[in-house]
Amino acid sequence: MGKADVADWPPTSASGVLKCEGSGGIGKVTIEVDGKTYAVNGTAKSDKDNLDIMPIWADDTTTGAKQGIGPLISEGLRLCK
Predict the structure, then answer these.
(1) Which of 42, 47, 40 is nearest to 72 (CA)?
(2) Does residue 79 sit in helix, strand or coil?
(3) pTM attached to this predicted model
(4) What is the DSSP string of 25-66?
């Protein structure tokens, strides 16, 4: 999965493996980039095995804040079946 798959792709990497551990559209959304697993949503942050996404979360060049991560979370939660 990458920039072509998710509008406003927020990670700084060109691609990664988006995963969700859960069911019914609820769970821990993570992304694996270069062999490291980062927490995408708050539920995944509670798992200490997941790294903080901040180091790979791209800045919004217009506002100086981080890019919106909502589309990535939504896409990840779709994987929780």
Answers:
(1) 40
(2) coil
(3) 0.85
(4) TEEEEEEEETTEEEE-SHHHHTSTTSEESGGGBPBPTTTSSB
